[in-house]
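Quarterly update from the structural biology core.
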Amino acid sequence: MSQPQNLPNPGTLKLTNGKPTNLGTISATLTQSVQFVIPEPCRDYQGFCIVQGVGNITTPTAILEGSLDGGNTWFSLNSSTNIVLGVSSLLTGDPPAGSADAFQVNGMGAGTLFRFGYTAGVITGTITVWAMVG
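Predicted structure, tokenized:
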């Protein structure tokens, strides 16, 4: 039996339900992205993907895109929740994340390739990108 043509490369990171995963880093170039796939739907899966950028980014505009043809063409997913971040954590003074967004990805876990990046903002240094589905 042959594999469907739209499956991502075997080396692409696959998220695990309820477990944060480090997807890599994005530097000051806004056209960079990190790619990943999500698990197949199951009864414990709520359909949300939360993506957090850790680092120094000012006025970020995050984007999550999906591809059904292995990365040849892409479509955009709207953020269902943009988490507004302050200068520091309100509870303990810990450093805040640079950005955090939640995306509705319900039903896309059977072969959709995702990529996350920023279309606007000023990045100082690098941003480490974390994601979790649940």
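The first strand starts at residue 13 and ends at 14.
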